[in-house]
From TrEMBL, chain A:
Catalytic activity reported: (2R,3S)-3-isopropylmalate = (2S)-2-isopropylmalate
Pathway named in the protein's UniProt entry: Amino-acid biosynthesis; L-leucine biosynthesis; L-leucine from 3-methyl-2-oxobutanoate: step 2/4
Signal peptide boundaries: none
Alphabetized UniProt keyword annotations: Amino-acid biosynthesis, Branched-chain amino acid biosynthesis, Leucine biosynthesis, Lyase
Function in brief: Catalyzes the isomerization between 2-isopropylmalate and 3-isopropylmalate, via the formation of 2-isopropylmaleate.
Subunit and interaction comment: Heterodimer of LeuC and LeuD.
Organism field: Hominifimenecus microfluidus
GO BP: any one term: L-leucine biosynthetic process
InterPro entries in the cross-refs: Aconitase/3IPM_dehydase_swvl, AconitaseA/IPMdHydase_ssu_swvl, IPMI_Swivel, LeuD, LeuD_type2/HacB/DmdB
Domain Aconitase A/isopropylmalate dehydratase small subunit swivel positions: 45-97
Enzyme kind, highest EC tier: lyase
HAMAP family: LeuD_type2
Keyword match Amino-acid biosynthesis: yes
Protein name: 3-isopropylmalate dehydratase small subunit
From TrEMBL, chain B:
EC number: 4.2.1.33
Protein name: 3-isopropylmalate dehydratase large subunit
Family: Belongs to the aconitase/IPM isomerase family. LeuC type 2 subfamily.
Cofactor dependence: [4Fe-4S] cluster
Superkingdom of origin: Bacteria
Residue ranges occupied by any Aconitase/3-isopropylmalate dehydratase large subunit alpha/beta/alpha domain in the UniProt entry: 20-283, 286-408
Residues that, per the record, bind [4Fe-4S] cluster: C297, C357, C360
Keywords, in A-Z order: 4Fe-4S, Amino-acid biosynthesis, Branched-chain amino acid biosynthesis, Iron, Iron-sulfur, Leucine biosynthesis, Lyase, Metal-binding
Pathway: Amino-acid biosynthesis; L-leucine biosynthesis; L-leucine from 3-methyl-2-oxobutanoate: step 2/4
């Protein structure tokens, strides 16, 4: 069970982590600034196991991998959105953070609601409602199962 | 079934006869560009996360410090040093302070038919030379750096048939903003945008780079153009030859096709905070501005600087406006000096800066404060993109930006 943190359609990666923090030495140095422009209290309030819920075209804009990385570093369990911009989607899988397409969830939940994600079953439980998630393409599920692209590469090269 | 340009490039890179949209293929990459936005993290992963750290083919790598150059803080300097030291140690082609990464790539590396990963979303610019460029994050980059390969989902293609000619005072920048406004910020999501037609002969290389560069703002994976004499002249002038020159087959399948008469395009402004929120510039007249920016990988090339200089010659920057002029590369800068363009901007009171990403990415010189408004030829106008979250960015052509810098409010060149 985790809490919902909800963001608008076309939420771009500059909002997830602003340019001015990208050249800090590590992701841990950046994570306290996640979503700062949208909600300066986000990084303090979000707890491991919580969810970011987005509308359509979530993660558009810059290819900065720092965007999914700061969310993962804060313990976000998954980003669930109506649809994703492709670079954010690919980056998230590569770092081993689930990105879930679910068209119905957005309008059915509010900030602070508790939801449960069953990754294996591909369902989300929100109150008394259950929503089906879209399956990941096989190639991406494989990468995610191994914990990300680097783990996958290390296995290939073993 | 026929193939699109995107499909042909992927087929060649995958070593197969044909591919179709929706397939996933393992591809050999021709070139891997990375800049200071993420490379320090790539290096950390290379050093600390890999079982067997190595580089498949160092000749494919190009590393460019362009985003925060010269560095703006000791922490940036440390990230730059990490990148510089690694590049030297491994013999990676390395550029620093010579220009914005995509302009350096176009001037020095990109060849038609190549498949290029860039750790920057605007890598789609390379389609202006018929190359498949696409933006990736640093983990994808690292995988490709180590293996020389990656995997790609073959994109569908949206085709734009261009006819006619842009009217005087209307630019490629207005055209591509119009197209993005029409199809929306996710209108080409996961797709390639292909530009063809008689109208192409009226678009210069500078125009074409500007168009392809911005396609990611419609969600596109890449942008592509056919390689004609204009592209070949650009390539040959820089001593390069194509790898392959592809055209889409007549029976290739397109997800959508649009016909655009270039003569119908008018000056456009994208309003804060979304690139696809476009209106005719004449509907934005009178908005007070604090800063104007002429530069970036989108619109900082010689022809853009010429447009600005022609407008501002004999006039002055408005006393309440900072007008930043930032050539996209030193090649552009030196040509502008020779033509007297830099002198013109300085006499008018502009601040002429070194070739870098500048305020376009909001973490370099020129960032704006709370409550301030910028009009920009940069790539994006997202909330806080140019500095403080409570600042505003309007996007427009070099002409509209320069005219606005003179007037102190948004205006078009014909109103000066």
């Amino acid at each position: 069970m985790g809490k919902v943190f909800k963001f608008h359609n076309d939420l771009d990666t500059d909002q997830i982590i602003a340019s001015q923090y990208l050249l800090l030495p590590t992701i841990d140095d950046m994570k306290s600034h996640a979503m700062e422009s949208q909600d300066p209290t986000f990084a303090e309030r979000v707890q491991p196991g919580d969810f970011v819920v987005g509308g359509s075209n979530f993660g558009c804009g810059s290819s900065r991998e720092q965007a999914p990385s700061v969310l993962k570093a804060l313990g976000v369990k998954a980003v669930i959105a109506k649809s994703f911009a492709r670079i954010f989607y690919r980056n998230s899988i590569n770092i081993g953070m689930p990105v879930i397409v679910c068209k119905e969830l957005y309008d059915a939940v509010e900030n602070g609601d508790d939801i449960e994600l069953d990754l294996l079953a591909g369902t989300i439980q929100a109150g008394d409602k259950t929503f089906a998630c879209t399956k990941l393409p096989e190639k991406m599920q494989e990468i995610l199962n191994q914990g990300g692209l680097i783990a996958s590469l290390n296995k290939e090269e073993a | 079934m026929g193939m699109t340009i995107a499909e042909k490039i992927i087929a060649a890179a995958a070593g197969v006869d044909s591919v179709k949209a929706g397939d996933i293929h393992t591809v050999e990459l021709d070139r891997l560009m990375s800049n200071d936005g993420t490379t320090h993290l790539t290096i950390d992963m290379y050093n600390n996360k890999l079982k067997n750290p190595h580089i498949a083919d160092v000749k494919k790598l190009v590393w460019i410090i362009d985003h925060n150059i010269p560095s703006d803080s000791p922490k940036t300097a440390a990230s730059h040093k990490k990148m510089r030291d690694f590049a030297r140690e491994h013999g990676i082609d390395f550029w620093e302070g010579k220009g914005v990464c995509h302009q350096i790539m176009m001037e020095n590396y990109v060849r038609p038919g190549e498949l290029i990963f860039g750790a920057d979303s605007h890598t789609c610019a390379y389609g202006a030379l018929g190359a498949f460029g696409t933006g990736v994050g640093c983990t994808d980059y690292l995988y490709a750096m180590v293996t020389g390969k990656s995997w790609l989902l073959v994109p569908e293609t949206i085709r734009f048939n261009l006819t006619g000619k842009l009217r005087e005072g209307v630019y490629a920048r207005d055209l591509i903003l119009t197209i993005i406004g029409k199809i929306g910020a996710a209108g080409a999501s996961y797709m390639a945008m292909e530009f063809v037609g008689d109208g192409m002969k009226n678009l210069t290389m500078d125009d074409r780079i500007s168009m392809c560069n911005l396609c990611v703002e419609a969600g596109a994976k890449t942008a592509l153009m056919e390689v004609d004499d204009i592209a070949l002249d650009y390539l040959h002038a820089r001593g390069r030859e194509p790898k392959h020159c592809f055209k889409s087959d007549e029976d290739a399948v397109f997800a959508a096709e649009y016909d655009i008469d270039l003569a119908t395009i008018e000056p456009i402004v994208a309003r804060p905070d979304f690139v696809d929120d476009v209106i005719p510039a004449k509907e934005a007249l009178g908005v007070k501005i604090d800063e104007a920016f002429l530069g970036s990988c989108n619109n900082g090339r010689l022809s853009d600087l010429r447009v600005g200089a022609d407008l501002i010659r004999g006039r002055k920057v408005h006393p309440l406006v900072r007008f930043l002029v930032v050539p996209a590369s030193n090649e552009v800068y030196e040509a502008a000096i020779k033509e007297g363009i830099i002198q013109t901007f300085m006499e008018a009171g502009a601040i002429v800066m070194n070739a870098n990403c500048s305020v376009c990415w909001g973490s370099c010189q020129g960032v704006i404060g709370a409550g301030e408004t910028l009009i920009s030829t940069g790539t994006r106008n997202f909330k806080g993109r140019a500095g403080h979250p409570d600042s505003k960015v309007y996007l427009a052509s070099a002409a509209t930006v320069t005219a606005s810098a003179i007037k102190g409010e948004i205006t078009t060149a014909d109103k000066l």
